[in-house]
Design goal:
Layout (H helix, E strand, L loop, with lengths): L3 E6 L2 E8 L4 E5 L13 H6 L3 E5 L16 H14 L5 E6 L1 H12 L4 E7 L11 H6 L2 H4 L5 H10 L1 H9 L11 H7 L2 H12 L17 E6 L7 H6 L8 E6 L5 H4 L1 H8 L4
Parallel strand pairs: 3-4, 3-5, 5-6, 6-7, 7-8
Antiparallel strand pairs: 1-2, 2-4
């Protein structure tokens, strides 16, 4: 495991894991997760001749805790500012969950800095159809905004953690050690609260910058066992992309890259 490094970007200190040399590939995790979510695929990307950097996003320890909750624009600008802070002018971005949302935001705000974007498990917001069963599947978007939500999540040694994985990824029963890195990050109550701050800043109507077509070649990855999303959701979003837009499918639910890491790597690597 590489040592943790640090870099200042967008007014905050970010922690990251780095492997390999070559063009920059920035790996961006979601919730509830950490930079370790890429531990299987990161060395494989590095072996193909890339400099891979897996970050802990703002508020996720050991990255710094921001003074204010982060909206999607802030998360997108974090990505854009990390690229020059790491000494590069452009990067390939790979994002999952909130990391996917941040990637869409970055591509909308600063397409000149992103050579390619690969997003996992989350289509562009333009594709979302608010059907009743789907709203129930993402009820946490509202519940995590309630007062005391972070403390309830931490109750009984984060008993909610494996439950939320099971709800979003019903075909996977991960071993207990899969959650060790998340528990470590969230053992700092301020870090846990900062992660919930992402939900507190959700805007259910896309911000103006997200309503224009994205000028970045994009690959989206859909899990065939995802209980909330299907390939149709990703295909529906095609209208939001001005350049190449490829939809890939693979077995697994929302955390498909962790449930089936070998299959994910086999799918991902040819797109780099």
């Amino acid at each position: 495991m590489p040592e943790i490094k640090y870099v200042e970007a967008n007014g905050l200190r970010f922690a990251y894991l780095e492997q390999g040399t070559g063009p920059l590939v920035l790996l961006v995790h979601g919730f509830p997760d950490t930079a370790h979510t890429w531990s299987h695929v990161q060395p494989l990307i590095a072996a193909k001749g890339y400099r891979t950097v897996a970050i802990w996003t703002r508020g996720y320890a050991p990255s710094a805790i921001p003074k204010q909750d982060a909206d999607l624009e802030t998360l997108g600008r974090d990505i854009l500012e990390l690229i020059p802070a790491l000494g590069e002018t452009t990067a390939i971005i790979i994002g999952h969950d909130w990391g996917a949302g941040a990637s869409y935001a970055a591509a909308s705000l600063g397409p000149e800095r992103i050579a390619k974007m690969i997003v996992v498990g989350v289509p562009h917001t333009a594709s979302y159809v608010p059907l009743p069963w789907r709203l129930w599947g993402i009820r946490h978007f509202v519940m995590y905004q309630w007062r005391g939500a972070a403390k309830r999540f931490a109750k009984d040694d984060f008993a909610a953690l494996p439950k939320i994985y099971k709800r979003w990824n019903p075909t996977w029963t991960p071993p207990a050690e899969e959650f060790a890195a998340v528990r470590e990050a969230f053992s700092n109550p301020e870090s846990l609260d900062a992660a919930f701050g992402y939900y507190r800043k959700i805007q259910f109507r896309p911000q103006e910058f997200l309503r224009k077509r994205i000028e970045v070649p994009t690959v989206v990855v859909s899990g065939t066992d995802d209980p909330n999303l299907t390939r149709k959701d990703y295909e529906r979003a095609r209208k939001m992309f001005a350049k190449d837009y490829v939809v890939e499918e693979m077995p697994g639910g929302h955390f498909m890259h962790r449930e089936h890491p070998e299959a994910f790597a086999k799918l991902l690597l040819p797109h780099l």
